[in-house]
TrEMBL record:
This is Triosephosphate isomerase. The gene is tpiA. It is found in: Cytoplasm. Its EC number is 5.3.1.1. Belongs to the triosephosphate isomerase family. It comes from Methanosarcina mazei. It catalyses: D-glyceraldehyde 3-phosphate = dihydroxyacetone phosphate. GO terms for cellular component: cytoplasm. Involved in the gluconeogenesis. Catalyzes stereospecifically the conversion of dihydroxyacetone phosphate (DHAP) to D-glyceraldehyde-3-phosphate (G3P). Its main location: cytoplasm. The active site is at residues 93, 141. One of its GO terms (molecular function) is triose-phosphate isomerase activity. NCBIfam families: PRK04302.1, tim. The lineage of its organism: Archaea, Methanobacteriati, Methanobacteriota, Stenosarchaea group, Methanomicrobia.
Length: 222
């Protein structure tokens, strides 16, 4: 397999807010350049423009709505995040759940505006359903392990390998990420050995006292 993809979700952690969003992105860029591994970041929406303007790195939105231009107060418009510098978007995170119809509409809008789409899922059946919509990535994250520090790739390897198998039967072009509790080199190694193409992670890096050192540890067994 090729080089893994690492997507760092800042959530609303204080360490990844405002100037911190830029500082963590700079650490990601340095580690990415040194290692040749693709690393992208998903800061909060108001920080997308700032991060994308100051750091040459792929920036994802944490959410976008399946709406167009017009009367949609408070919604996230794909064209707007694209123009702010976003390269892609998360869709349907466990902390930002959408209905199936909303997921489909959001994905359609992401494709329309040329944004890379990562649909987050919580188990094998929802991963299979998401793959049928043909996003660029599905990211399987069991909610009970999110933020736990217990890596999905070790605590629940079957959900990762089961997702990889289900997606390969539905559409082998859809790539599989896994997430929840991933922070160390052996967690990423185990995720790749289970057939995933990378990880979606947050607290282990964003809340680390030295995010650059934490990233270096994460990739050391790739
Ligand atoms: O989107 C990433 C995520 O939900 C996993 O969070 O803190 O367990 O790495 P964490």
């Amino acid at each position: 397999m090729g080089s893994p993809f690492i997507l760092l979700n800042y959530k609303t952690y204080i360490q990844g807010t405002g100037k911190g969003a830029v500082d963590i992105a700079k650490a990601c860029k340095t580690v990415s350049e040194e290692s040749g591994i693709e690393i992208a970041v998903a800061p909060q929406l108001p920080d997308i423009y700032r991060v994308a303007s100051e750091v040459e790195l792929s920036v994802f939105s944490q959410h976008m709505d399946g709406i167009g231009a017009g009367s949609f107060t408070g919604h996230v418009f794909g064209k707007c995040i694209k123009e702010a510098g976003a390269f892609g978007t998360l869709i349907n995170h466990s902390e930002r759940r959408l209905t199936l119809a909303e997921i489909e509409a959001s994905l359609k809008a992401a494709k329309e505006f040329g944004l890379r789409a990562v649909i987050c899922t919580n188990n094998v059946p929802t991963t299979a359903a998401a793959a049928a919509l043909v996003p660029d990535y599905v990211a399987i994250e069991p909610p009970e392990l999110i933020g736990s520090g217990i890596p999905v790739s070790k605590a629940d390897p079957e959900v990762v390998s089961g997702s990889v198998e289900a997606v390969s039967k539905i559409n082998p072009d859809v790539k599989v990420l896994c997430g929840a509790g991933i922070s160390k080199g052996e967690d990423l190694r185990a995720a790749l050995d289970l057939g995933s193409q990378g990880v979606l992670l947050a607290s282990g890096i964003v809340k680390a006292s030295d995010p650059k050192a934490a990233l270096e540890d994460l990739i050391r067994l790739v």
